Protein backbone atom coordinates (compact mmCIF):
# COMPACT_ATOMS: atom_id res chain seq x y z
CA UNK A 1 0.00 0.00 0.00
CA UNK A 2 2.81 2.36 0.93
CA UNK A 3 4.63 1.73 -2.36
CA UNK A 4 1.39 2.36 -4.30
CA UNK A 5 0.92 5.72 -2.59
CA UNK A 6 4.53 6.69 -3.29
CA UNK A 7 4.04 5.78 -6.94
CA UNK A 8 0.98 8.01 -7.13
CA UNK A 9 2.87 10.88 -5.56
CA UNK A 10 5.74 10.56 -8.03
CA UNK A 11 3.40 10.48 -11.01
CA UNK A 12 1.30 13.42 -9.84
CA UNK A 13 2.05 16.78 -11.49
CA UNK A 14 2.36 19.39 -8.79
CA UNK A 15 1.54 22.98 -9.65
CA UNK A 16 2.27 26.29 -7.96
CA UNK A 17 0.24 28.80 -9.99
CA UNK A 18 1.75 31.92 -8.42
CA UNK A 19 5.30 30.66 -8.91
CA UNK A 20 4.59 29.63 -12.49
CA UNK A 21 3.07 33.04 -13.18
CA UNK A 22 6.20 34.76 -11.87
CA UNK A 23 8.48 32.53 -13.94
CA UNK A 24 6.34 33.19 -17.03
CA UNK A 25 6.82 36.94 -16.53
CA UNK A 26 10.59 36.59 -16.11
CA UNK A 27 10.94 34.34 -19.16
CA UNK A 28 8.80 36.69 -21.26
CA UNK A 29 10.82 39.78 -20.33
CA UNK A 30 14.08 37.92 -20.96
CA UNK A 31 13.09 37.94 -24.64
CA UNK A 32 12.07 41.62 -24.67
CA UNK A 33 15.18 43.80 -24.46
CA UNK A 34 13.14 47.01 -24.63
CA UNK A 35 10.79 45.89 -21.87
CA UNK A 36 6.99 45.76 -21.89
CA UNK A 37 4.15 47.74 -20.38
CA UNK A 38 1.98 46.00 -17.81
CA UNK A 39 -0.93 45.53 -20.23
CA UNK A 40 1.43 44.08 -22.85
CA UNK A 41 2.82 41.58 -20.34
CA UNK A 42 -0.72 40.53 -19.54
CA UNK A 43 -1.66 40.24 -23.22
CA UNK A 44 1.41 38.15 -24.06
CA UNK A 45 0.63 35.74 -21.22
CA UNK A 46 -3.10 35.60 -21.93
CA UNK A 47 -3.89 37.04 -18.50
CA UNK A 48 -5.76 40.08 -17.25
CA UNK A 49 -3.84 43.03 -15.83
CA UNK A 50 -5.33 42.38 -12.41
CA UNK A 51 -4.04 38.78 -12.51
CA UNK A 52 -0.41 39.78 -12.97
CA UNK A 53 -0.28 43.18 -11.25
CA UNK A 54 0.55 41.80 -7.81
CA UNK A 55 3.19 39.42 -9.17
CA UNK A 56 4.89 42.19 -11.17
CA UNK A 57 4.85 44.42 -8.09
CA UNK A 58 6.49 41.71 -5.98
CA UNK A 59 9.14 41.00 -8.61
CA UNK A 60 9.90 44.71 -8.85
CA UNK A 61 10.08 45.00 -5.07
CA UNK A 62 12.54 42.09 -4.96
CA UNK A 63 14.56 43.86 -7.70
CA UNK A 64 14.13 41.15 -10.32
CA UNK A 65 12.34 43.71 -12.49
CA UNK A 66 13.01 47.40 -13.04
CA UNK A 67 10.42 49.98 -14.06
CA UNK A 68 11.07 52.90 -16.40
CA UNK A 69 8.62 55.71 -15.52
CA UNK A 70 9.35 57.48 -18.82
CA UNK A 71 8.09 54.57 -20.93
CA UNK A 72 5.93 52.72 -18.38
CA UNK A 73 7.85 49.58 -19.27
CA UNK A 74 9.12 46.78 -17.08
CA UNK A 75 12.33 44.94 -17.92
CA UNK A 76 14.64 42.43 -16.24
CA UNK A 77 17.30 43.74 -13.89
CA UNK A 78 20.71 42.09 -13.54
CA UNK A 79 19.70 40.37 -10.31
CA UNK A 80 19.26 36.94 -11.92
CA UNK A 81 22.72 37.24 -13.46
CA UNK A 82 24.18 38.29 -10.10
CA UNK A 83 22.56 35.29 -8.42
CA UNK A 84 23.86 32.94 -11.11
CA UNK A 85 27.32 34.45 -10.70
CA UNK A 86 27.28 33.45 -7.04
CA UNK A 87 26.85 29.82 -8.04
CA UNK A 88 30.05 28.06 -7.01
CA UNK A 89 31.24 26.81 -10.44
CA UNK A 90 30.60 30.20 -12.05
CA UNK A 91 32.18 32.11 -9.19
CA UNK A 92 35.24 29.85 -9.24
CA UNK A 93 35.94 30.23 -12.93
CA UNK A 94 35.41 34.02 -12.98
CA UNK A 95 37.66 34.42 -9.95
CA UNK A 96 40.34 32.25 -11.55
CA UNK A 97 40.12 34.11 -14.87
CA UNK A 98 39.80 37.76 -13.82
CA UNK A 99 43.45 38.66 -13.25
CA UNK A 100 44.65 36.59 -16.23
CA UNK A 101 42.18 38.33 -18.52
CA UNK A 102 43.19 41.75 -17.22
CA UNK A 103 46.85 41.00 -17.91
CA UNK A 104 46.10 39.48 -21.32
CA UNK A 105 44.05 42.45 -22.54
CA UNK A 106 46.94 44.77 -21.68
CA UNK A 107 49.53 42.51 -23.31
CA UNK A 108 47.74 42.27 -26.65
CA UNK A 109 45.82 45.59 -26.62
CA UNK A 110 42.60 43.72 -27.34
CA UNK A 111 39.37 43.09 -25.45
CA UNK A 112 38.60 39.60 -24.16
CA UNK A 113 35.72 37.86 -22.47
CA UNK A 114 34.78 34.61 -20.73
CA UNK A 115 31.86 32.37 -21.61
CA UNK A 116 30.25 29.25 -20.27
CA UNK A 117 27.79 26.84 -21.84
CA UNK A 118 24.12 26.55 -20.93
CA UNK A 119 22.25 24.00 -23.01
CA UNK A 120 22.74 25.05 -26.66
CA UNK A 121 24.01 28.58 -26.02
CA UNK A 122 27.17 30.25 -24.77
CA UNK A 123 26.75 32.95 -22.11
CA UNK A 124 29.15 35.78 -21.31
CA UNK A 125 30.33 35.67 -17.68
CA UNK A 126 33.11 38.24 -17.62
CA UNK A 127 34.52 40.93 -19.92
CA UNK A 128 37.74 42.94 -19.95
CA UNK A 129 38.23 45.96 -22.21
CA UNK A 130 41.52 46.41 -23.98
CA UNK A 131 43.50 49.60 -23.25
CA UNK A 132 42.88 51.12 -26.69
CA UNK A 133 40.45 54.02 -27.15
CA UNK A 134 38.32 51.99 -29.57
CA UNK A 135 37.33 48.59 -28.16
CA UNK A 136 34.75 45.84 -28.58
CA UNK A 137 32.59 45.41 -25.48
CA UNK A 138 30.34 42.43 -24.85
CA UNK A 139 27.33 42.64 -22.55
CA UNK A 140 27.46 40.43 -19.47
CA UNK A 141 24.85 37.73 -19.79
CA UNK A 142 24.78 37.99 -23.59
CA UNK A 143 23.86 34.68 -25.23
CA UNK A 144 24.80 33.20 -28.60
CA UNK A 145 23.87 29.88 -30.21
CA UNK A 146 26.74 27.40 -29.98
CA UNK A 147 26.81 27.05 -33.76
CA UNK A 148 27.11 30.83 -34.22
CA UNK A 149 30.23 31.78 -32.26
CA UNK A 150 33.85 30.77 -31.83
CA UNK A 151 33.36 29.84 -28.17
CA UNK A 152 30.31 27.78 -29.12
CA UNK A 153 32.43 25.89 -31.65
CA UNK A 154 35.00 25.16 -28.94
CA UNK A 155 32.32 23.88 -26.56
CA UNK A 156 30.94 21.63 -29.31
CA UNK A 157 34.42 20.43 -30.26
CA UNK A 158 35.00 19.19 -26.72
CA UNK A 159 31.46 17.96 -26.07
CA UNK A 160 30.98 14.37 -24.95
CA UNK A 161 27.91 12.54 -26.30
CA UNK A 162 26.44 15.81 -27.57
CA UNK A 163 22.82 15.54 -28.71
CA UNK A 164 23.21 18.15 -31.47
CA UNK A 165 23.49 16.67 -34.96
CA UNK A 166 26.00 18.31 -37.31
CA UNK A 167 26.72 18.13 -41.01
CA UNK A 168 29.79 16.18 -42.09
CA UNK A 169 31.59 19.43 -42.92
CA UNK A 170 30.88 21.02 -39.54
CA UNK A 171 31.88 17.83 -37.74
CA UNK A 172 35.23 17.93 -39.54
CA UNK A 173 35.60 21.59 -38.58
CA UNK A 174 35.00 20.78 -34.90
CA UNK A 175 37.55 17.97 -35.04
CA UNK A 176 40.12 20.39 -36.47
CA UNK A 177 39.37 22.91 -33.69
CA UNK A 178 39.94 20.28 -31.03
CA UNK A 179 43.23 19.22 -32.58
CA UNK A 180 44.38 22.81 -33.06
CA UNK A 181 43.44 23.82 -29.52
CA UNK A 182 41.40 26.92 -30.37
CA UNK A 183 38.83 28.33 -32.79
CA UNK A 184 39.32 31.36 -35.01
CA UNK A 185 36.22 32.67 -36.79
CA UNK A 186 35.00 35.89 -38.31
CA UNK A 187 32.39 37.51 -36.09
CA UNK A 188 28.85 36.82 -37.27
CA UNK A 189 27.74 40.12 -35.72
CA UNK A 190 30.43 42.67 -36.63
CA UNK A 191 32.37 43.12 -39.86
CA UNK A 192 36.13 43.24 -39.49
CA UNK A 193 36.17 41.51 -36.09
CA UNK A 194 37.58 38.04 -35.48
CA UNK A 195 36.82 35.86 -32.47
CA UNK A 196 39.58 33.62 -31.15
CA UNK A 197 38.41 31.17 -28.48
CA UNK A 198 40.36 28.85 -26.18
CA UNK A 199 38.99 26.09 -23.94
CA UNK A 200 39.34 26.22 -20.16
CA UNK A 201 39.22 22.91 -18.29
CA UNK A 202 38.42 21.94 -14.71
CA UNK A 203 40.07 19.39 -12.42
CA UNK A 204 38.22 16.56 -14.18
CA UNK A 205 39.66 17.76 -17.51
CA UNK A 206 36.18 18.75 -18.73
CA UNK A 207 35.62 22.00 -20.57
CA UNK A 208 34.03 24.49 -18.22
CA UNK A 209 34.51 27.85 -19.97
CA UNK A 210 36.04 29.60 -22.97
CA UNK A 211 38.42 32.54 -23.10
CA UNK A 212 37.68 34.66 -26.17
CA UNK A 213 39.62 37.50 -27.81
CA UNK A 214 37.65 40.05 -29.82
CA UNK A 215 40.45 40.71 -32.29
CA UNK A 216 40.47 44.07 -34.09
CA UNK A 217 42.99 45.02 -36.76
CA UNK A 218 43.95 48.55 -35.69
CA UNK A 219 45.24 50.82 -38.44
CA UNK A 220 48.03 52.22 -36.27
CA UNK A 221 49.43 48.70 -35.80
CA UNK A 222 49.53 49.21 -32.03
CA UNK A 223 48.56 45.66 -31.11
CA UNK A 224 50.31 42.34 -30.98
CA UNK A 225 50.17 40.49 -34.28
CA UNK A 226 47.57 37.76 -34.41
CA UNK A 227 49.95 34.83 -33.91
CA UNK A 228 51.52 36.47 -30.84
CA UNK A 229 48.06 37.21 -29.45
CA UNK A 230 47.02 33.59 -30.00
CA UNK A 231 50.08 32.28 -28.17
CA UNK A 232 49.61 34.65 -25.22
CA UNK A 233 45.91 33.80 -24.94
CA UNK A 234 46.66 30.07 -25.13
CA UNK A 235 49.09 30.45 -22.22
CA UNK A 236 46.53 32.47 -20.24
CA UNK A 237 43.85 29.82 -20.79
CA UNK A 238 46.27 27.13 -19.61
CA UNK A 239 47.03 29.08 -16.43
CA UNK A 240 43.32 29.55 -15.72
CA UNK A 241 42.77 25.80 -16.19
CA UNK A 242 45.65 25.15 -13.80
CA UNK A 243 44.02 27.40 -11.20
CA UNK A 244 40.85 25.33 -11.57
CA UNK A 245 42.82 22.17 -10.79
CA UNK A 246 43.31 20.68 -14.23
CA UNK A 247 46.07 18.07 -14.00
CA UNK A 248 49.24 19.21 -15.70
CA UNK A 249 50.63 16.99 -18.43
CA UNK A 250 54.26 15.98 -18.06
CA UNK A 251 56.46 16.62 -21.10
UniProtKB/TrEMBL annotation:
Domain IclR-ED: 79-246
SMART domains referenced in this protein's UniProt entry, alphabetically: HTH_ICLR (SM00346)
Domain HTH iclR-type: 16-78
Regions that span the bilayer: none
SUPFAM superfamilies hit by this protein: GAF domain-like, Winged helix' DNA-binding domain
InterPro entries: GAF-like_dom_sf, HTH_MetabolicPath_Reg, Tscrpt_reg_IclR_C, Tscrpt_reg_IclR_N, WH-like_DNA-bd_sf, WH_DNA-bd_sf
Keywords carried by this UniProt record: DNA-binding, Transcription, Transcription regulation
UniProt keyword DNA-binding present: yes
Superkingdom of source: Bacteria
Protein name: IclR family transcriptional regulator
Species in which this protein is naturally found: Catenovulum sediminis
Amino acid sequence: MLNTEKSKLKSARYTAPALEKGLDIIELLARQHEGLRLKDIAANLGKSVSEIFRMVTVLEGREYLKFDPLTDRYSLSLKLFEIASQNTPVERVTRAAASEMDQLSKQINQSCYLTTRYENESIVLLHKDGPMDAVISVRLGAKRPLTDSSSGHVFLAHAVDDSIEHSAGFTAQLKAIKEQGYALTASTLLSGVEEIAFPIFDKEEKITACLVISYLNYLNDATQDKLAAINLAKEAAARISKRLGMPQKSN
